[in-house]
Design brief:
four-stranded antiparallel β-sheet, 3 domains
Length: about 600
């Protein structure tokens, strides 16, 4: 049996049904996932569905002026906070010299987003000197544990579990972790008295000045802090809003923090590490030790040295809260791991019973918590979608008209072949719709007006791929080949052209996505997504379907309505070649090329 000719794949011709079955199974699976998730429509952006608009006013910190550079830095950090992967379509932009406007589309967790952008002060790691639960319903919980690997380890890490509810009132008090430098409470408060944190049987720890303390400014500061701590009631929102907000980095302060829906009050020492010295933080799931979700931190060179010195001193303290550090953002303790050993090398891990959302929020705060300015929330308003709805209607109408014109052109010029193009467009549209619906809850993708424009532009890109392939087939038929070999010979050249064209479109979309923000990113993301889907549809649907239909008499015989009529295409006579027989007596025999 003769082998297939070079350059022609027998499997590609004989099994196109496999590719068609594969893409149809993918569509069914994705559609099933869409209905199972309960998200049957794409999430709309703020310009189409409405949402929340937040106005923030900048306030100068010590040593930080309100200028364009600091405002631009704040916008960039806030944009990363609320957008996550960059496609949730939340908008962050400056207004005037002192204000930043944050627009959050409907369907996004607006409360969480407000917390992300509203918590805008600098991030600090402070020693915890004392703490206790506030409110009559509060019960103490065991302190979290943190361990760091030895200095000989190439990648030292500390793990701290978040505080859990205690089973009895005799449990030790919850602790907040603090990067203390091993100083006593007296040293931290810069006073002559010796306040000490004592844990009672009820689990409460409070600083108490020594009876032998002498007078002076130090004692006055200690007494003032002691009074603030005694009067602090973190169960009241009005108190939490001001506690520790104006504290200087070099001064001790009081603060509030929430653990398992219970508020605790803290006495914190001077800041030991600044949030700007956290180079990177990420939430990861630990599958090796079954520790669950944890937050990995990487410090800068300067921050690594500070963190190593601090944790080394903290580890010398045997009991909480003096061996703990508080991660303080905007005057509030957001996490409080315990240190058991020195953590050197610039890498640390905070682990425990985190949920995925808790770990990601903490990593987000650690990564983007250090802003050059503080901000005050001026107003929060609800944005209606009336204007956006009208624009969407107009955009969809324009898209429908454009699609109709494309279909009319295909039918008029390609006739029977247009059915393949239209079927391919429908498959591409189905995949685009389903994937956009799934990306809403998955990565907070929101469809805005520019994204709709990107989808409309994609109609032309997709149709162009079909036209390239059809024209290559028609060129082969003009050369005198029959349809089945023309389909296979045309594919390699059409494939190269399609891939190059789509690569250029995808590259342009990727660059546009990287260098822009806000709504323009929606256009770039949609354009890039539809370009990738164009490749998938052409390879797994259009080409296999064309191979199957080439075996049908309507197309194979070149019916005048098929779009492949050799006569109307001006085809040459069938190609022939001369083959000499083995014997000298026989004359030349002409055979038609298959």
């Amino acid at each position: 049996m003769a082998a297939p000719k070079k350059g022609r794949s027998a499997s590609a011709q004989s099994k196109p049904g496999r590719s068609l079955a594969l893409i149809l199974i993918a569509i069914v699976a994705l559609t099933g996932g869409m209905f199972a998730a309960g998200h049957t429509t794409p999430r709309l952006g703020i310009d189409l569905a409405g949402g929340t608009s937040i106005t923030l006013e900048a306030k100068a910190d010590q040593g930080s002026a309100i200028n364009k550079a600091n405002m631009d830095t704040a916008v960039e950090i806030m944009n990363r906070r609320v957008n996550g992967l960059g496609v949730s379509e939340a908008e962050v932009q400056t207004q005037g010299e002192r204000n930043i406007i944050v627009n959050i589309p409907k369907g996004t967790n607006s409360k969480e987003a407000r917390d992300q952008v509203g918590t805008t002060a600098k991030l600090y790691f402070r020693p915890v000197l004392a703490q206790e639960a506030t409110g009559s319903a509060a019960s103490p919980s065991p302190s979290p544990s943190a361990s760091g690997s030895s200095s000989a380890s190439p990648s030292p890490s500390a793990s701290a579990s978040p505080k859990e509810k205690a089973s009895s009132s005799a449990s030790p008090s919850p602790s907040a972790s603090a990067t203390s430098q091993g100083r006593s409470v007296t040293d931290a408060l810069k006073a002559d008295s010796t306040p000490s944190a004592s844990a009672s049987a009820s689990g409460k720890a409070s600083p108490s000045p020594s009876a032998s303390a002498s007078g002076g400014a130090g004692n006055d500061a200690t007494a003032k802090l002691q009074a603030q701590y005694a009067a602090l009631d973190c169960s009241k929102e009005s108190v939490r809003a001001t506690a520790g907000k104006n504290a200087k980095p070099g001064d001790p302060t009081v603060a509030c923090g929430e653990v398992d829906k219970v508020w605790y009050k803290y006495v914190l020492g001077p800041a030991a590490v600044d949030g700007t010295e956290v180079k990177k933080a990420s939430a990861v799931f630990d599958t090796q030790t079954a520790a669950g979700w944890q937050v990995n931190m990487t410090f800068t060179g300067k921050g690594a040295k500070k963190f190593g010195d601090v944790t080394g001193q903290l580890a010398k303290n045997p009991a909480p809260p003096q061996n703990e550090f508080g991660i303080v953002l905007d005057g509030q303790v957001v996490s409080s791991p315990t240190v058991r050993t020195a953590i050197t090398g610039g890498q640390a891990q905070i682990s425990g019973s985190f949920t995925q959302e808790e770990a990601q929020n903490l990593a987000n705060m650690l990564s983007y918590g250090a802003l050059p300015l503080s901000f005050k929330e001026q107003s929060v308003t609800t944005v209606t979608a009336a204007l956006g709805g009208e624009q969407l209607h107009a955009g969809l109408l324009a898209g429908a008209i454009g699609l109709a014109l494309v279909v009319i052109y295909l039918v008029a010029y390609y006739r029977g072949l247009s059915m393949i193009a239209i079927a391919s467009l429908l498959v591409s549209a189905a995949l685009t719709y389903v994937i956009m619906s799934l990306l809403g809850p998955a990565i907070n993708f929101a469809l805005n007006l520019p994204a709709v424009c990107g989808a409309i532009v994609a109609i032309g890109i997709t149709a162009d791929s079909f036209i390239v392939y059809f024209e290559r087939i028609r060129d082969e038929i003009r050369e005198g080949r029959t349809l089945r070999p023309a389909v296979e010979r045309a594919w390699p050249r059409a494939r190269r052209t399609i891939l190059v064209s789509d690569f250029v479109s995808f590259l342009a979309a990727a660059v546009l996505f990287i260098v822009t923000v806000g709504k323009v990113q929606g256009f770039a993301f949609t354009l890039g997504l539809t370009t990738v889907l164009d490749v998938v549809v052409v390879f797994f649907f259009t080409k296999p379907l064309m191979t199957l239909l080439a075996r049908r008499k309507f197309f194979a015989d070149g019916n005048k309505w098929s779009g492949l009529d050799p006569k109307s295409l001006g085809a040459k006579p069938p190609l022939r070649r001369t083959r000499r027989p083995a014997g000298p007596a026989a004359g030349p025999v002409e055979t038609k090329e298959a």
